[in-house]
Amino acid sequence: MHPVKIVDLFAGPGGLDVAAEKLGVATVGVEWDASACETRRAAGLVTVEGDVRKYGPSDFPDADVLAGGPPCQTFTVAGSGAGRRALDEVLRFVKRMVAREDRDEIDQDLSKLEDERTGLVLEPLRWALEAIDDENNTPYRAIILEQVPAVLPVWEAYAVALRAEGYSAECGILRTEEYGVPQTRKRAVLIARKGIEEVTLPEPTHRPYRKGVPREAGDQARRPWTRMADVLDRQSPFRVISNYGTGGDPKARGRRASWEPSATVTGKISRNRVVSLDGAELKRFSLAEAGCLQTFPVDYPWSGRDVGQQIGNAVPPRLAMHVLCAAFGWGTPDEELLKSLKTWRPEKASEPATADIAAEPHVEYA
């Protein structure tokens, strides 16, 4: 398929949009975080600053692909059981939405959730079903969703629902280092395409990282995983000592060396110490370096506040490029396309998605 435009929900600073624009596919991102919108505008990405719940397919009539990565916080709560409760509630709502229960009743019940962010994971399904049911809309030709692994059961429920609506759909857990990202990170991904033609998740191109296993070991048909040293311009080897999620226990601090991929880049990456092999303190990762570990272009114009959090929450553009190509039936992106992610230098921004939304408050286009 040859998509016209992607509408990207919960678009963040533009991880998926960067990949799409490099593939020559226009995008418009809906994002409510003002700082992420500042970055997007600085990058020249078409941006609607607002709440996804206040929009729908009719606001973006020329978008034929739906993408999104809803907030994940309520699904990753440990210990209290809140994550489990959130998941059970969401799966019940999925069934109600697919059964086309009264939307006002569903919205009323969603408002009773203990954390309103829980219901946001249902927004892509709302958009997809509205595009199917509204005679003035055309069903999305492809749908791409990603989130933390804990959200996989939701994507599985989505896949069942979308297959019943005439889509081919597949979902699963992808490891970012298996796609050349210099970082170990797992993402739950769903790909759906309208029609009976089978859709599959992207084929891995690199070997998985295993602590203590040599980089050259494993499936020789795949490339070695990418090292931090391959993407960061540092003159000598180093080690990264994590100071996140340890409870202050030095023994619990993870360690990665420059000849390994980074651990998962989070919004707290500035807490990580960087030391030489003899233990001397070195400069901690800059925001540009953190972006490179996420495979954003080295010159990406990070802007606004909480840039570390913007970077940590984003989908790595390199992974996004693989996922988009799979969703469109294009196969594995070639090295020339992947190398294009190294620099940004955006061309002239795309035209606004629709004139109608220009009157909505907080809508801004780059």
Task: Please explain how this structure is put together.
The protein has 366 residues and is an alpha/beta fold. The chain folds into 2 domains: 5-208 and 312-364, Vaccinia Virus protein VP39 (Rossmann fold); 228-296, no CATH class. Helices cover 27% and strands 15% of the residues. It contains 10 helices and 12 strands. The strands form 2 sheets. An 8-stranded mixed β-sheet has the order 6-7-5-4-1-2-3-12, sandwiched between helices. It has a 4-stranded antiparallel β-sheet with strand order 9-8-10-11, with no helix packed on it. Strand 1, helix 1 and strand 2 form a beta-alpha-beta unit. The chain starts with a strand and ends with a strand. GO terms for molecular function: DNA (cytosine-5-)-methyltransferase activity; DNA binding. It holds the Pfam family DNA_methylase. This is DNA (cytosine-5-)-methyltransferase. Residues 96-123 form a coiled coil. It comes from Nonomuraea polychroma.
Key traits:
single chain; 366 residues; Rossmann fold; four-stranded antiparallel sheet; 12 strands; disordered C terminus
Tally the beta strands. Answer: 12
Low-confidence stretches: 348-366
Structural class: alpha/beta
Largest sheet at a glance?
Answer: 8 strands, mixed
- N→C terminal distance: 28 Å
Average pLDDT number: 89
CATH hierarchy: architecture of the largest domain: 3-Layer(aba) Sandwich
Helix content: 25-40%
Cα Rg: 20 Å
CATH topology of the largest domain: Rossmann fold
CATH secondary-structure class of the largest domain = Alpha Beta
What spatial form do the alpha-carbon principal axes imply? globular
Q: What is the count of helical runs?
A: 10
Tell me the CATH superfamily of the largest domain.
Answer: Vaccinia Virus protein VP39
Coiled coil: 96-123
EC number: 2.1.1.37
Protein name: DNA (cytosine-5-)-methyltransferase
Family: Belongs to the class I-like SAM-binding methyltransferase superfamily. C5-methyltransferase family.
